Amino acid sequence: MTWRVLIAEVKQETSTFNPMPTLYDEFRIYTGEDIFTAYRDTKTELAGAFDIFDEDGRIELVPTVAADCVSGGPIATPDLDRLLGEIEASVRLQSSIDAAYICLHGAMAGADEGDPEGRLLRNLREILGDIPLVASLDLHCVLTDRMVEHADILVPYHTYPHTDHYETGQRAARNLLGLLDGTSKPTVARVKLPMLVRGDELLTATGRFGEAIRMCQDVEATESGLAAGVIIGNAFTDVPALQSSVLVTTNDDAEAALEAAERIGKFMWENRELFQAKLTSLEESICQANETDGLVVFSDAADATASGASGDSNAILKGLLASGFLKRALIPIVDAPAAAAAFKAGVGATIDVSLGGTRDPGRFEPVAVTARVKSLHDGRFTYENGTIGNGDQTAVLIVGSMHILVTQRPVYVVGQRVFQDHGLNPADYDLVVVKSPNGFRTWYESIASLIVPVDVPGSTSANLKSLPFRNCVRPIFPLNEDVPSPF
Ligand SMILES: [Zn+2]
Asked: Which residues are CB-neighbours of 142 under 8 A, at least 6 positions away?
């Protein structure tokens, strides 16, 4: 007996506070068999799911579309319509589908669509009918009622920083096999928590959030447990459903699902004051960098391209220039005109360019520098998880004691490979700026003497009160005072 399992993926994480729209052409899209070439033997959800399905031996995979994009601003309406339309059209072409595994991030937003993933799941459900449908999610997903309604089981990550993509794909695939075998009958409980969370306590290995996740894992390990997670939303995806949730799915045991969801939800709510970021002023951060021996890492969470920011913040660069910083610093920035100017001038040339403020000019004003072009690159490199990154025209500029990695397009600046593949080894510097709130810790804790979360402006600032929220659930902690308990 062979079951035909449809595979689709769409992933992007949106900061609605980033004014630069995300376009269709920025998505990296694989179709059909190319999905296997791109994802097998990587550390992704799809690879994890493929391995479980292969091992089972009864599954014929039906790959359709896998589309993912660096986090960014809201997806322009025609571009989102085209993207979702192509996925749906590809699914419509398939016949005799027995089940579907849909790999999602969950915190995507269109310029006019607050819930693209819910829309996709609803439309796929309509096309595919009443067959087993499992989706995996980032725990930063903005969970909507529509998503819960149109999937049988939703399987979220259990780690932050995220290191369990592969395992999440495996759990999703096992859940799908349970549905195909007819051994599971999902009962779902969801508790909504009017809270937005940031800060170190979210680190699942060491922080309080990890305790909540371990409660979820304990639920999954019970006889009736199928999937459980705390889905905290991307705090910068300001859409009507934005809040946190606990989602528990059990096998035909609604009571156990509800008991667990409420118990874990209460734990999160009682600890809400802990889940706020402690940030250090730029001035103090630079003092600490001057006083510390060994590598200092500045976390520029406010301009985290990993969370949807524009990547063109020059706030830290400006601070370092103004303070006359003399130590060796490595700084990434997205600046297409500066990269183009470096290409035009060539390696070894000295150029006068401005840096920053090309994508979010309301927040960042360009700063003029004289730079020497150290090297030029086509921008393609390999992320730590085995997938390919692409910053397009990429230049390394030398400004005083600073090396600046200038990319034409945003890339994730979370790991070390983004630097290393451009000839820059983070361990050789006194200061490295990363564009990530926490994910970078996986790759930098072992080489850093000091990590500083810097308080600078940006469309993904952990200082949530600095952002112009308009759409999220209200009242909500910490944006409002005295938010009533959901219990
Ligand atoms: Zn995430």
From this structure: 106, 107, 109, 115, 233, 234, 237, 239, 241, 242
Give the Å distance between the CA of 163 and the centre of ligand 1: 10
Whole-model pTM?
0.95
Ligand 1 centre distance from Cα of residue 162 (Å):
7
User: 């520029």: which residue's tokens?
Assistant: 300
Residue 413 CA to its chain's centroid (Å): 12
Residue 439 CA to ligand 1 center (angstroms) comes to 8
Note down the domain range covering 403.
280-462
For residues 269 and 345, membership in a common domain is answered with no
List, for residues 122-138, the tens digit of each pLDDT value: 999 999 999 999 999 99
Q: Are residues 251 and 287 in the same domain?
A: no
pLDDT in tens, 176-186: 999 999 999 99
Q: How far is the CA of 17 from the centre of ligand 1 (A)?
A: 17
Q: Is residue 139 part of a domain?
A: yes
Quote the ligand 1 centre to 192 CA distance (angstroms): 19
The whole-angstrom separation of Cα 225 and Cα 222 is 5
